[in-house]
Amino acid sequence: MHTVLSSLPGLVEISSNIFGLQGLESEQLGSLEFARLPLGAIRRTLGGLDGEALVQTEFRVEPLARYPNTIEFLAWFVRDQSRGGVPIQLRPFALPPQAGELIQLGTSLLWQIDFFCIVPMGDRSSAHLTAIDRIANDLEFALEIYGHLLTKNDV
What we know:
The protein contains four helices and six strands. It is of the alpha+beta class. The chain has one domain. The protein has a four-stranded antiparallel beta sheet. The protein starts with a helix and ends in a 9-residue tail after the last helix. About 15% of the residues are buried.
């Protein structure tokens, strides 16, 4: 997935992590330790589900004036995957506008793609990796069809 995302114009600082959500309780979500997680989605289930893991990919976007279509393209792609039954979402993430003397407004915005999967305890198989590969292949296919539109400013 990381490789495919890096081919999109304007996406920078791409990283991925996997978080085990099993045992996570909704009361813990106020902690800074969990601030990067999709809090609304986890609160809806009152915490992590049995065997649930979250694969999260983060990235920043260069100024939208330069690549105005990339986020819109990704928003469509992720919504389309979700409509097809993939437990995935795209959401923005930002830090507070100011922390002490440090002004963070205008510098902390990034985007996260959250993919929820069940990884049974003790199962070291790569079923979730296969699912991520399938999403990456779908994204590559979508780019083959629509990629030429991403750099057009007059779409």
